[in-house]
Write a structure and sequence with these properties.
- This protein has 113 residues and is mainly alpha-helical.
- The protein is built from 1 helix and 2 strands, in the order H-E-E.
- It has a two-stranded antiparallel sheet with strand order 1-2.
- The longest helix is centred in the N-terminal third of the chain and has 48 residues, at 6-53.
Length: 113
């Protein structure tokens, strides 16, 4: 109890008995118990307030969905990526088809006369 062995508690009780006397000792013990209970109650309240003021996890909030920021989702691995990605950074699959190159202009046809 309180990191003290039995002999130290007995010695403390004898010293308290000699110092305060048998008449006042119960009164002082009751006061000490009352103040100890008040101290414990105050520390519990402070601890509760401190725990309520901080969030349970300290991780940043999750990023907004890709659709909300103009992104897209990889159909192979469901990784959310931005619109400017051609390949998925997670799995490497192609996300966009390359725009078809414009067909070379056909040679002019001779006019029939």
């Amino acid at each position: 109890m309180f990191g003290m062995d039995f002999e130290a508690l007995v010695l403390l009780a004898i010293l308290a008995f000699i110092l305060f006397g048998p008449e006042k000792l119960p009164e002082y013990a009751a006061k000490a118990g009352y103040y100890l209970a008040k101290l414990r109650e105050a520390t519990t309240e402070l601890s509760r307030q401190a725990q309520c003021s901080f969030p349970d996890n300290l991780q940043p909030p999750p990023p907004p969905p890709a659709a909300a920021i103009g992104g897209q989702t990889c159909p192979y691995c469901a990784q959310e990526v931005g619109r400017d990605f051609t390949f998925c950074p997670q799995c490497g699959h192609r996300l966009k088809e390359e725009a078809a190159a414009p067909a070379p202009p056909s040679p002019p046809q001779p006019l029939a006369s």
